[in-house]
Design a protein that fits this description.
Blueprint (H helix, E strand, L loop, with lengths): L4 H15 L7 H8 L3 H13 L3 E4 L5 E4 L8 H8 L21 H16 L10 H9 L2
Antiparallel strand pairs: 1-2
Helix pairs in contact: 1-3, 1-4, 2-3
């Protein structure tokens, strides 16, 4: 399973904020750091704010920061929130001639479920280490 750029950037943003150790930062700093378009980042941040994983502070000295502890953000839940579909294949569009007897959809579906089950106990805290924290904080 290959994640969309939307999900990839969501993970990057969450990791970045986790490394900031509860310091406010701006979307602009994040977009500059990862070379992400600002409008794309704003859509992602908005989704993550609605999920409660990011807190947005409005005003002149505002910004964003992690909205909860990193160990409360499941990698599986991030994928489920950000991905448009988790269907491994689409047998309906265009209609597939062999979809009835074909077992590919079931096999790939089970493999994907095992992948998600593997990620379920993993959290954002598993992705944060001191080396990356040093790198992020040095750029501030």
């Amino acid at each position: 399973m290959q994640l969309t750029k939307h999900t990839d950037f969501a993970f990057r943003i969450l990791i970045y904020l986790a490394m900031m150790q509860q310091k406010l930062t701006t979307i602009q700093k994040i977009t500059d750091s990862f070379d992400i378009s600002k409008s794309h980042a704003m859509k992602i941040v908005n989704k993550l704010v609605h999920a409660g994983w990011i807190k947005a502070v409005r005003g002149k000295n505002g910004g964003i920061l992690l909205g909860c502890e990193a160990n409360r953000i499941s990698l599986k839940e991030v994928i489920e929130l950000m991905e448009n579909t988790l269907e491994p294949v689409n047998c309906d569009h265009p209609p597939c001639l062999i979809s009835g007897p074909c077992r590919l959809r079931g096999i790939l579906g089970e493999a994907q479920q095992q992948y998600l089950n593997y990620l379920a106990p993993m959290t954002l805290a598993n992705l944060v280490d001191s080396e990356t924290s040093k790198l992020i904080n040095a750029k501030q």
